[in-house]
Amino acid sequence: MSTRHDTGSDRSAAPLPCDGRYVELPRGDYDWLRVELDTDAPGTETVWLYYEDAAEPEYLHVGAAGTGPARIAVPRRSNLVGLRLPERPDMKVLSLEPVPSARRTEWSGT
After folding, report:
1. Which of 30, 32, 39, 110 could potentially form a cystine with 91 if both were Cys, beta carbons 3.0 to 4.6 Å apart?
2. Does the reported pTM lie above 0.85?
3. Residues contacting residue 31 through CB under 8 Å, at least 6 positions apart
């Protein structure tokens, strides 16, 4: 599992239950958070994105039951430092990977 919730890449990490917990992320400027989920039902949940200077709600759209990908937009142009998962007992996060900002990549010339 390409898990970044522990800021590493341990593929054997256990799934994270969606129990309202705070997940620390590597400080950075991101466009998206890629999330692999396992859930019993589709729906839309609110997550909280924690930046260095603020916290804001964002939506996590779950398209179908079972295991599948989702994305969480990171609209603020500020360094993201963490995420609070929703409280949804049937949902587990299998992987969580920040996607670096395309704007920052263009600035750095990479």
Report:
1. 39
2. no
3. 73, 74, 99, 100, 101, 102, 103
